[in-house]
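Thread: "does anyone have the structure for this chain?"

Original post by V.I.:
We have the sequence but no experimental structure in hand. Need at least a predicted one for the grant figures.
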Amino acid sequence: MNARRSLRRLPQRWRPLALVAAALATAGTVAAAVAAATALAPPANTGRPGISGGARDGSTLTARNGRWTNQPASFAYQWLRCGGGGANCAAIAGANGRTYTLGTGDVGHRLRVQVTATNAAGSGTAESNATRVVASVGSVPANTAPPSVSGNPQEGQTLSAGVGRWSGASSFGFQWQRCDANGAGCAAIAGATGQTYNLSSSDVAHTLRVQVTARNSRGGTSATSAPTALVAPARPGSAAVAVTSIALPDRLVVDQVKFSPQPLRRRRTLVGRFHVSDLRGFSIQGALVYALALPYGWVATAPEVQTDGSGWAPIAFRPTSRLPLHRGTFLVVFVRARKPGENLLAGVSTRRLVQATIVP
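Reply from O.Q.:
Generated one for you, tokens below.
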């Protein structure tokens, strides 16, 4: 009212200028009020926070702040571990930085991050979407196919180890082991840690296998090959094994025969000595040897005899009165060697005909 009276007192030509000045004063007051109101409002989220980085064990995640009004002065973070469906989240103790490195405890879970924006008027909080389910990577190596051994298992020969197939392996180590004839009771061979191994006399009549250890930054995993065949001697007959260790496709062989006395000049006991080996050159202990002299009735039939530790079986032939002592007479002997418990005509058995001279 007073303003209107003051305006009427002004000369007519000054009144428009006074109206403009009054309007400007009013606008300044309103702008100041709006500015003051804006400065006092806490930050408000207009674009959800996000997370960058792979959801894999050992990876690092980084929080993205999102979009905010009212000019936040600072941001704070809290990482949350959630269930596989992204719900039931709980704060991870100490995980308050903008980045977070995933560990084994996060595998199978999803993660979120809470971002808190702050200014002089207060703060506001917003939460990101959940990551994918955290995958397990960087585990110790896993064997998918066992190691193998190649080479001729004979004294003086070299065996080589195949590592097999692995996932996640960066390096390999080897340990050769010496086992019994059945592939059991294995023990590490001192110093035998290369990918190849030279067979020695100590390995004869044993089997060998190799243990391969695959390693990466997480640790190591070991796998073992199947045992080799029995290591054969370099010189046939120089080592003996039990007949119980012989199985097809190996076979018994009557490889040596000795008669004493030779020639047989009178009707006295004739001793035949029969040596049994296998196809690999081992002397065979415990094989059953049967010998039948022909024609029938010239000598008495003898029972089966078991080979000794050197593979020899002695059999005594006692002549009867029907044995002729003529010049140029020979005693033919049918010899059979077999593994106890097997069929007489099957398995690893062998048969052979030999002859002894009666009178030269």
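V.I.: this helps a lot. Confidence is low (pLDDT under 50) at residues 30-34.
O.Q.: and DSSP finds two helices and 27 strands in the chain.
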